[in-house]
Structure formats: structure tokens, C-alpha cells
Design a protein that fits this description.
TIM Barrel, single chain, 2 domains, 8-stranded parallel beta barrel, alpha/beta, Ribosomal Protein S8, Chain: A, domain 1, 13 helices, about 375 residues
């Protein structure tokens, strides 16, 4: 009688788990919220906001960690960590609707964080038409070979084709817009959903005129001051990637324990800038491999899901990156696929890859496993 069998329920469909034990079907959808937990970091609340939020959390059995000096009033602002079940967080949000100090707006943000964010991962096939790309520079550097590879990527199962005519590896020289366009425009005559990997608003506008729908700006709208206006003008989608402005190469991100928060806040600033310019369609890329140390890259990778808090799709680009420290593309593709398996499991929306065929097989296997 004393031998109890206990196991943790993790990464499971809680509605199914409740159904399996015979829980009342009428209450399964609502009941699952008591078994789903979330920790939310809220930046820079004032003392009044911090105290009210903490007390409100305690009234529903949740908790809210604040700076130790909030109680003394010796500081002006505090980041806070609010944690609880979905059910508790929903109750907190409802209570905040009736509180002062703009906490009604925080209520809406907490409720938004509880909305489902699962989506089917899409494959973005990489088409480098550069002389010096780190993995396939020069291989598709003319219209004939580029178009042939485009059709290969589509046949292998790419959902989007990302074309770049300027290498973004450290130390690479800038390529004039006219040279980029000379290489890109012939490819755009083919039938596909195109993303343009460029920092140039001149390149972006010409490509959008010629049918491209997405601009993938590795500078996160920091390099070309006209880029945001052009993207808004054509109602295009922008991929905002985190990267140090390459005009300030010396100020490289240094490894620190707050790297995730630093990048989150920088991306938040760029998203708000894009929205202020009238851009409605945004994809976020944390910029793994760009101006970051090996430790930074893996710390970011392990916490990718936190960036879903923006409420925008997430793109991950780790394919054949130098931080993998492998000798050839075959090895890089194997390790890229292994890491992207984790990304797919965590619901990352877009994976940008060279080996489309391998990743299409991976996604098809994953889908079949869910049926």
C-alpha cells in the first residue's frame, strides 16, 4: 500500500491528460489552465505599480518577485517577475483592470501573454548569390545557376526563398545596390514567395516593385534610415534581426548574464520604431551568430521561446553558422538539423536553412508523429 508511483507531466497536452484520467469533459478546457504555468518578467515598474502587483498576486496564491528596496522606497523602479498558473494570472489581470497607475494597460498585456502561440514551422530556403558567403560563396553567382538552385529549393520543400547578394559575415565589404540588383532581379522573375536579404532601401524598393514580399534586414532597420519607410510604403513584411550596427563594429556585444534581456529590449525598441513608421507585418530574429560569443548564441537558443512574448512570429537562422565550429557543410547540416529539431518542438515559426530537403523530411516526420 505504501508504494506510490509518481511521474512528472511535462510538455503534454493537458486537455488530453485530464481526459485520460476521466476528468469532467465539460470543464477540461478551463481546467487545464490550473496546470499550465508561466513566469513573466515585467520591466521597470514604479514603486506603486510594483507593490500593487505583488499584493494582487498574493491574493490569488501566486507570487511576484520585486527588488528588495521596493518596500523601503529607496529606488524609483524595479523589474519584477510574476509567476503562477494561467488561471491565477488571468485572475490577476482581471483585478488589475480596476487599479490605478496605468495597471489596466498591464492587465491587457498579461492576458495577451496567455494567448496560444503555437504555429506550424515554415522553411525559408537560403539562396546566396554572393562571391564570398561563408558556406557557398560563388556557387550560385550567376543567373542560370541561381535559378537552377531556386527550383531545387522549391522542389525540396521551401516555403519561402531568401535571396541575398551581399555577404553579412564579419569583415565582408559592402556591395553597391546596383550590383546586388543585377544579380537579384533576374531571379525574381521566377514564381516563388521571395524574401530579400538586404540592408539597402534601394535594393528593397526595386525588389518589392518586382514581386518580393519580405525584406530580411540583418541590421534590424539600423543601417539604412530609409528602409522602414520603404517597407511601409509597399505594406511588406520585415524581418527585424538583432545585430550591432555594423557602422559601429567595435562595440561588440559582450557575454553577460543579461544578454537575453539586452537583446529583448533592443528588439523591442526596433519593433516600436517599425510600428511608428507604419509597418504592420513583422518577424523577429534574435540574430544568432551575429556579433555574439558562443556562450551568447547558446544562451539565446535555449531561451528562444521568451521572444514569443512580442506577439510576432520568430525566425531562427543557425544554418551552417561558423559558431558550430565544424569542418564541412555536410557536418554543419547534420548539427543544424539537430538544433532545429528543438526549435520546431518549441514552435519557432520560421527556420532559415541551406539544406531544405533534410528539414522538410524532419518536419514531415514531426507532423506524422503528432497525428
Amino acid at each position: 500500500m505504501g508504494n506510490f508511483i509518481v511521474k512528472e507531466v511535462k510538455n503534454a497536452d493537458m486537455v488530453k491528460e485530464l481526459d485520460n484520467i476521466g476528468f469532467d469533459k465539460c470543464y477540461q478546457e478551463k481546467g487545464q489552465e490550473k496546470y499550465l504555468y508561466k513566469n513573466l518578467k515585467i520591466f521597470s515598474l514604479n514603486i506603486a505599480q510594483s507593490n500593487i502587483l505583488k499584493q494582487t498576486a498574493l491574493t490569488v496564491g501566486a507570487d511576484c518577485a520585486v527588488h528588495r528596496e521596493v518596500i523601503t522606497g529607496k529606488i524609483d523602479n524595479s523589474d519584477v517577475i510574476l509567476g503562477g498558473s494561467y488561471s491565477q494570472l488571468r485572475k490577476i489581470a482581471e483585478k488589475l483592470k480596476f487599479q490605478p497607475f496605468s495597471l489596466k494597460e498591464l492587465s491587457g498585456e498579461i492576458l495577451r501573454q496567455l494567448e496560444p502561440k503555437k504555429s506550424e514551422t515554415k522553411i525559408v530556403g537560403i539562396l546566396n548569390i554572393t562571391d564570398n558567403s561563408f558556406s557557398d560563396g560563388g556557387k550560385y553567382n550567376n543567373s542560370i545557376s541561381a535559378i537552377e538552385h531556386l527550383h531545387e529549393l522549391l522542389q525540396d520543400g521551401a516555403d519561402i526563398i531568401d535571396i541575398g547578394a551581399e555577404s553579412t559575415k564579419p569583415g565582408a565589404e559592402e556591395i553597391p545596390p546596383e550590383i546586388q540588383l543585377k544579380k537579384i532581379l533576374p531571379v525574381l522573375k521566377e514564381k516563388a514567395l521571395f524574401s530579400i536579404d538586404t540592408r539597402s532601401s534601394i535594393v528593397a524598393e526595386e525588389c518589392l516593385k518586382n514581386g518580393a514580399k519580405i525584406i530580411n534586414d540583418v541590421s534590424g532597420l539600423k543601417f539604412d534610415s530609409n528602409m522602414a519607410d520603404i517597407i511601409a510604403k509597399y505594406n511588406a513584411t520585415v524581418v527585424i534581426q538583432h545585430s550591432i550596427n555594423r557602422q559601429n563594429q567595435g562595440s561588440r556585444v559582450q557575454t553577460n548574464l543579461n544578454i537575453v534581456d539586452d537583446i529583448y529590449l533592443d528588439l523591442y525598441k526596433q519593433i516600436e520604431y517599425a510600428k511608428s513608421k507604419g509597418i504592420e507585418h513583422i518577424i523577429v530574429d534574435v540574430g544568432i551568430g551575429f556579433d555574439k560569443t558562443l556562450e551568447d548564441n547558446f544562451r539565446l537558443f535555449n531561451r528562444l521561446e521568451e521572444f514569443k512574448s512580442f506577439g510576432y512570429p520568430i525566425m531562427l537562422g543557425i544554418s551552417r553558422k561558423s559558431f558550430l565550429n565544424l569542418n564541412n557543410n555536410e557536418e554543419r547540416d547534420i548539427y543544424t538539423t539537430a538544433l532545429n529539431t528543438i526549435a520546431i518542438e518549441h514552435g519557432i515559426d520560421y527556420i532559415r536553412v541551406h539544406n531544405v530537403k533534410m528539414h522538410r523530411k524532419l518536419i514531415d516526420i514531426y507532423k506524422k508523429d503528432l497525428l
